[in-house]
Design goal:
Elements: H1 6-9, E1 22-30, H2 35-48, E2 53-58, E3 67-75, E4 88-91, H3 97-102, E5 109-113, E6 126-130, H4 132-137, H5 146-149, H6 151-162, H7 166-176, H8 181-201, E7 220-222, H9 224-234, E8 239-242, H10 249-262, E9 274-277, H11 281-293, E10 298-302, H12 304-309, H13 311-320, E11 324-330, H14 347-351, E12 361-363, H15 368-385, E13 388-394, H16 395-399, E14 402-404, H17 422-428, H18 475-491, E15 500-502, E16 509-514, H19 518-530, E17 535-540, E18 542-543, H20 547-554, E19 558-563, H21 569-577, E20 585-589, H22 598-612
Parallel strand pairs: 1-4, 4-5, 5-6, 8-9, 8-10, 10-11, 11-13, 12-13, 16-17, 16-19, 19-20
Antiparallel strand pairs: 1-3, 2-3, 7-14, 12-18, 15-17
Helix pairs in contact: 2-6, 2-7, 6-8, 7-8, 9-10, 9-15, 19-22
Length: 613
Amino acid sequence: MSTLQPVAQVKAQTEFEYGVNDFSITVGTVNGSGSQTSNLTILRALFKMGIPVSGKNLFPSNIQGLPTWYTIRVSKDGYLARREEQEIVVGMNPNTFQKDLNSVSPGGVFLYPDDMKIPVQREDIITYPMPVKKLSMESGAPSNLRSYVANMVYVGVLAQLLQIDLDKIYQALDFHFKGKTKPIDLNFGVVQAAHQWAAENLEKKDPYRVVPMNLTEGYIMADGNTAAALGAIYGGVTFASWYPITPASSLAESLVEYLPKLRKDPENGKNTYAVVQAEDEIAAIGMAIGAGWAGLRAMTSTSGPGLSLMTEYAGLAYFAEVPVVVWDVQRVGPSTGLPTRTAQSDLTFTHFLGHGDTQQIVLLPGSVTECFEFGWRAFDIAERLQAPVFVLSDLDFGMNQWMTRPFEYPDRPMDRGKILWEEDLEKLKGDWGRYRDVDGDGIPYRTVPGNRHPTAAYFARGTGHDENANYSEDPQNWTKLLDRLKRKFNQARKYVPRPVIDTMPGAKIGIIAFGSTGPAIEEARDQLARQGIPSDYLRVRAIPFTEEVTDFIRSHDRVYVVEMNRDGQLHQLLTLEVPDRATQLISLAHTDGLPLTASRVRTSILEKEANQS
């Protein structure tokens, strides 16, 4: 059974000539210049033409003024990973003009404002100067908006050169500006003027163009942070606390945007949730744990530096057995690191978050669709296991636009886990212990505030305790407690998402990965197969690992572990899981802040395989 990204399963049946529906566009601008509107307009217009696309935003960690790049990949075959090649580059930033010019692939295209009097000294590419200043001056835009609408000039020129449907451009603007006629007409007017100018003044000399397809039917465009927020809402989130941090802020902001629309009491119109912006990350997780203890479905969201601050509270929730969900939208570390670059470097840190013998449950979404799904499933798992659940996304998923299937409403009722109410305690005649393992699965029973039975109360302890929540330093109690927590962690294998596996006939090598590396690996596997190297692929979706992971490792001669960090953190954890197969696990770890490419995966595996001969 194939478990690839759905769009990558549907290959285009039409044979296109070179340069048609298969290239990348990169726009170099200045952060804060309004170019994101123009770039998303192109992306959405191509998507509306039925062509598979993906967008990657490479932006600096300041508010305004530094260079930023946005890359759109157009792929008739449905591949969504970043490419290293850039066939079309738009250079709007004089400070990066030469760098942008040099980045154009041989035979490619370079567009730039004609008022930039910088020599173009390349004979292996095609250049198109554009009258950006002239057309923005003639747009009728107020002087304070001209620099923003100027970006629509390259939208119009590209639309003419590449044959992007202007009706789709208009629809994309209508979506972006939410039907507001004035900004739509202002921006579309510039697009039309630039389109007409290009038709009258530019002789097309390059092979790149687009033609309509039907490969985006049944898909939407969304980012992972919005998907996660919607998933949490549909999973019954009642309380969220957060502190702003890139790249996680938009997750909480999406909660703030959508909760008022989706979570009001129909009778009195009052909100049925609370969202609190805390004074720091420590307060944010403290509030969420308090809400989780009180019986609410509670969550917080952060990134690596914020998670570092949350460590002590995470240990408390693990030991006191309080359900809470924590989203970590990963970025490059250590320390402040690169706030606006992507990585997968929080895996081992999160898994062992907290001092002492602590093992946290970690979910690893591998698509925007799974960001939504894990948004609600995380609550079920947290409450079933009475434990913190950490969901590790990253900047690439969280802040970039991806093609995804429409989100599906949860297919099961909420799992609140083992909660005792008044009638339950009455049947037990009050004979219960908060940390007592009645069922042998390591998961005790709990009560929540509001239970009026006189024996319902207990003391939630971060200190040593016995099964009745009484303070204890007894060695036997301590050993028994830690053994039960380990048993509960192992029990989590029954509830966490299982891995997805895709196989090829004759494969002797396996590839294991997680998260946003998936699209690059899927494309690389196709490339390797064409070179006579079939491979099987397992995408991990949770820790603890399930038996499918160990079975996969044992059934292959060599298993390549692909991830975006320096030290091979998933490789380390798999080696701990299957130590007798350590020599068959080969780490292909790399981090540079950029999304992984298929060419890097393919080249790395080919080099390793060559050494095996």
